[in-house]
Structure formats: C-alpha cells, structure tokens
Amino acid sequence: MLKLLKSLTLFFLFTILLGCSLIKQFDSSNVDNRVIYKQSQPLPPLKISPELDGKPR
Question: How many CB atoms lie within 10 A of CB 27?
C-alpha cells in the first residue's frame, strides 16, 4: 500500500510539473520583450510641481 501511495504521489508531482511547463509555453501573455526593450527610447525627466517636491519654501 505504501509503495502504491509513493508511486501515485510521484506520478501526480511529475504530471503537475510537466503541466506547468507546458502552460508556460502556450501562454499568450508570455511574450519575449527583449526586442522591444532594445528598441525603447529614454523618456524625458518628469516635471514635479513645486507643491509636490517636498522642499520647504
């Protein structure tokens, strides 16, 4: 009985791990952003209004 329980546990663990890797491959939100990152341009510095900069007047 213990051998069967260990076998089933290993089977389900392997199935879950395999399923997670397959879901990651077919997930449409898992996009390779390296090309987009390399093509990005820097943004100009943000302008902070005097009321929000925290400096005393």
Answer: 9
Tokens in use for 55? 């400096």
SS (H, E, C) 1-57: CHHHHHHHHHHHHHHHHHHHHHHHHHCCCCCCCHHHHHCCCCCCCCCCCCCCCCCCC
CA 24 to chain centre: 10
pLDDT (0 to 100) of residue 30: 62
Residue pLDDT, tens place only, 36-50: 777 878 899 988 888
Enter the tokens of residue 32.
Answer: 């390779």
**Sign of the CA dihedral running 36, 37, 39, 40:** positive
Distance of CA 55 to the CA centre of its chain: 37
